[in-house]
Design goal:
The complex is a heterodimer. Chain A is mostly beta strands. Chain A has no helices and 11 strands. Classes of the chains: A mainly beta, B mainly beta.
């Protein structure tokens, strides 16, 4: 079993819809949680970074962490065609330089 | 204009040849990392360095080597011992351990 599980998709939704992307994890020591967006043939871009349970909002993006269920989510409101990309979740322990990544979910927003 | 640069963007190598990928950052970050990305496998850590003149193996270090002679630079050498080197290579940096990592644009290596 992988430490981090992420549905690879592909996921297609119409423009303006709310998108929900999710990851589950098995290592209860994970304390830091990140979401990256990666456009085709580009490096990942950090979208959200959080280290506590609950919600963190930044514009159209909301990151949600539920440590009791070992489950994290990224919500995208009012989705735009420019949101079409692969979304990677990543997580780490305290004092650990290593990030453990999910495999990524490929998202397409249909105009 | 701060950031992480990687060169070249595309690299072709014949089997049996060593090749070096460049990574430079002007963010004044102490920590630097090399990842490999393959379809369906996410990112896997090759090597990382927390300070100059020090580096540690990641999960898949076999067939790779690195150096960290300057804070700004962390080159990766893919040696002929790496059995399956064709992949997308990503360099990242962070202020320190426990901080978010920022990625460069990547180098796509193809072995012919």
């Amino acid at each position: 079993q992988k430490e981090v599980e992420q549905d690879p998709g592909p996921l297609s939704v119409p423009e303006g819809a709310i998108v929900s992307l999710n990851c589950t994890y098995s290592n209860s020591a994970f304390q830091y949680f990140m979401w990256y967006r990666q456009y085709s043939r580009k490096g990942p871009e950090l979208l959200m970074y959080t280290y506590s349970s609950g919600n963190k909002e930044d514009g159209r993006f909301t990151a949600q962490v539920d440590k009791s269920s070992k489950y994290i989510s990224l919500f995208i409101r009012d989705s735009q065609p420019s949101d079409s990309a692969t979304y990677l979740c990543a997580m780490a322990n305290f004092g650990n330089e290593k990030l453990t990544f999910g495999t990524g979910t490929r998202l397409t927003i249909i105009p | 204009d701060g950031g992480i640069t990687q060169s070249p963007k595309y690299l072709f190598r014949k089997e049996g040849q060593n090749v070096t990928l460049s990574c430079e950052q002007n963010l004044n970050h102490d920590a630097m990392y090399w990842y490999r990305q393959d379809p369906g496998q996410g990112l896997r850590l090759i090597y990382y360095s927390q300070i100059v003149n020090d580096f540690q193996k990641g999960d898949i270090a076999e067939g790779y080597s690195v150096s960290r002679e300057k804070k700004e630079s962390f080159p990766l050498t893919v040696t002929s011992a790496q059995k399956n080197p064709t992949a997308f290579y990503l360099c990242a940096s962070s202020i320190a351990v426990d901080n978010e990592q920022f990625f460069g644009p990547g180098t796509r290596l193809t072995v012919l």
